[in-house]
Write a structure and sequence with these properties.
This protein has a domain of 37 residues. It contains two helices and no strands. The structure holds zinc ion. It holds the Pfam family Cys_rich_CWC.
């Protein structure tokens, strides 16, 4: 049994900090990433490791940092 492929859905795949994903909490509020003001361009998504894709959310600071560039 190997945990090598395990990706924590609670941590941002880019900075490894808590991503605050609302989809994981038991609350009914939608995740901040569902806000249409936020976009995740291809160039940002490409920085995410293949193993983490569709498993872990990028956190808000990372998304904002990318947008500011
Ligand atoms: Zn992050």
């Amino acid at each position: 049994m190997s945990n090598e492929e395990y990706v924590s859905p609670e941590n941002c795949p880019l900075c490894n900090k808590a991503n605050d994903c609302g989809n994981l909490s038991n609350s009914n509020k939608p995740c901040w990433c569902m806000d249409e003001k936020f976009t995740f361009p291809e160039s940002l998504l490409n920085q995410v490791e293949v193993a983490a894709k569709n498993k872990a959310c990028i956190c808000k600071p990372c998304a904002l940092k990318h947008k500011a560039r």
